[in-house]
Design a protein that fits this description.
By secondary structure, the chain is α/β, with parallel strands linked by helices. Helix content is about 50%, strand content about 15%. It is built from 24 helices and 16 strands. One of its GO terms (molecular function) is ATP binding.
Length: about 575
């Protein structure tokens, strides 16, 4: 007894509210003449062990002990020896009961584990259950509904010797009451507003849906109280936010600042007002907590030609909402084209969410994935959860999901021709109006093409965000931003100032770029052109001109710039980098 049993003491002030009816049922069952053993069934965390402690307190003249099942099965031959150890334990307990004239109750938590470890041990329990009332020894076992069905219910003789009592999860109000009793026990002199306790319950319900009340809320409150006791920090919403961020990886304080969000996103992604507005609108809804709290914070389909800012907007969103681009997790969906890769995608996605529940999930070029992956995505969009390989349920409620696609190339090619027909000063408002005009065609392409999307997937998305092919003016903005970034990098690393001739901009934007092709003149093309034609030559010049503090970047030769966005392969223009001479 001293080796495998631990006395169960009362719970003091930590009695959970609205459990008296269950405690009464336990007492009544233990006093029955025939079936006097209890099986408590409930999800992990609902308070089964605490209920047994409450029963021990109510039956003060009885002695309650918890059996250490893991210790009993330990050792090299633990699983083999477990049945004989249990038999010896029961004999010793019965002798103790006779000598002390005490009613005894043994509590076996995780009861299904005995069946998994040693089916023979389960058989050793049956005689005890059959004669428990006459022996003065009763058993209370606890497990979950699923595990009881899987391991116990099929054993008819065992099942019939147990009175099943179900333990439901506490409601939100009941959990708040339990948290109040916790505070009364550990911080009797503190006066805490119930609004803080309610916030704890709401947060845990939202970000830990696979866990049960009251355990998940008690653990969070316990962490807050521990920090408060150690460092003297007041119990407040600010401290709660700090603990949630540190322990759960969730930022519960983020809000969309009116006006600033759209300005920031437009500064990061040039001339895509329709896409940006669709994202900002969803951010407002989510920030105000008016979104469906059973689904992800927001879900978007970014559609448009390559190199127009789809990935950049996802990165900008991650930075704005979660504080860092690293909060965006990208999945290249071309890696999941085979149906056998669905489990791999499930593992990677659930692993990413387990590490960081607050993030942007980017499913890049979804049309390249197999149909089974789309089905997996439907499950996430539906109820914001997915089960990992270990059977653990992972929540998607605090993340944004972005799907990108290049489907609809024909429509975007037509749009690009429309842009080309206008002057180089084609306004953002004009581009926005034209994109809205073509939106029905884009949506039709998404549904009707061979690589299109099933209606049930499109119907579950919060927004379809179209990106237009970029205009000449937008190319200038992208090129200007890239050159400034390059100049800063050179100065920070080498202390050298770059001076770009004005013809350099024209060279980057127009030379060698097929601007009438929706997929050839994007931001990636411009960045690649800068890397190939300029960055390499600057790197070489930094070696050749070690003691120069200024370098000039110029264009030599004639550029073939025509009135429309075209290319002249016979251009003689090329980039030169050398020592800078002020004029």
């Amino acid at each position: 007894m001293s080796k495998y049993l631990k006395p169960m003491l009362g719970v003091g002030q930590r009695k959970f509210v609205n459990r008296d009816n269950i405690v009464n049922l336990i007492q009544a069952t233990l006093n029955r003449n025939e079936v006097s053993n209890v099986a408590l069934l409930g999800d992990a965390g609902v308070g089964k062990t605490t209920i047994v402690m409450m029963a021990a307190e109510a039956l003060a003249d009885w002695e309650f002990y918890e059996v250490n099942v893991s210790l009993m099965s330990s050792g090299e031959d633990g699983s083999v020896q477990m049945a004989s150890r249990l038999t010896k334990l029961f004999d010793e307990v019965q002798l103790y009961q006779k000598n002390n004239n005490k009613e005894l109750v043994l509590f076996l938590d995780e009861f299904h584990a005995i069946m998994k470890i040693s089916p023979a041990a389960l058989e050793a329990i049956k005689p005890v259950l059959a004669n428990s009332g006459r022996r003065g020894l009763r058993l209370i076992v606890a497990t979950t509904y699923e595990e009881y069905d899987q391991y116990i219910r099929g054993n008819q003789a065992l099942h019939e010797r147990l009175e099943v009592i179900k333990v439901p999860e506490l409601t939100s109000d009941e959990t708040i009451g339990a948290l109040g009793l916790y505070l009364k026990a550990y911080l009797p002199n503190e006066r805490i507003d119930n609004s803080l306790l309610r916030r704890i319950v709401n947060i845990t319900n939202k970000v830990q849906p696979s866990q049960s009340q009251p355990r998940k809320s008690v653990r969070l409150l316990d962490a807050v109280v521990g920090y408060h006791t150690t460092f003297g920090v007041p119990l407040s919403d600010q401290l709660l936010s700090k603990i949630v961020k540190a322990s759960l990886g969730v930022n519960i304080d983020w809000q969309v600042n009116s006006g600033e969000t759209e300005v920031y996103l437009n500064r990061r992604v040039f001339d895509q007002p329709v896409a940006v507005k669709s994202v900002v609108n969803r951010l407002y809804i989510s920030s105000a907590e008016l979104n469906d709290n059973t689904r992800p914070r927001g879900s978007f389909l970014f559609t448009g030609p390559t190199g127009v800012g789809k990935t950049e907007l996802a990165k900008a969103l991650a930075t704005w909402v979660y504080g860092a681009e690293e909060s965006m997790v990208r999945f290249d969906m071309s890696e999941y084209s085979n149906p056998d890769s669905v489990d791999l995608l499930r593992d990677r996605v659930t692993s990413a969410l387990w590490q960081n529940p607050s993030c942007i999930l980017l499913y890049d070029e979804i049309e390249k994935a197999c149909k089974e992956c789309s089905t997996l995505l439907l499950q996430v969009l539906d109820d914001a959860r997915l089960t990992d390989r270990h059977g653990k349920e992972i929540s998607f409620k605090d993340c944004f999901i972005i799907i990108t696609t290049n489907v609809g190339a024909d429509v975007y090619a037509e749009l690009n021709r429309k842009y080309a027909e206008n002057s180089s000063d084609f306004s953002i408002n004009g581009a926005e109006a034209l994109l809205k005009e073509y939106y029905p065609l884009i949506e039709r392409e998404l549904r009707d093409t061979e690589n299109g999307f099933p209606a049930e997937l499109l119907g579950r998305l919060d927004a379809i965000s179209p990106f237009s092919a970029i205009s000449f003016a937008t190319r200038r903005k992208i090129a200007d931003a890239q050159l400034k970034k390059l100049a800063k990098q050179v100065y920070d690393n080498h202390g050298v100032t770059l001076h770009f001739d004005k013809r350099v901009m024209e060279y980057i934007v127009r030379e060698g770029v097929k601007t009438n092709d929706a997929n050839s003149g994007g931001g990636r093309t411009l960045r690649r052109k800068i890397d190939q034609d300029i960055t390499g030559k600057i790197a070489k010049a930094l070696v050749n001109y070690k003691h120069v503090s200024d370098l000039a970047v110029i264009v030599e030769g004639k550029m073939a710039i025509e009135s429309k966005f075209t290319i002249d392969v016979d251009s003689s223009a090329q980039i030169k980098v050398g020592a800078y001479t002020p004029k």
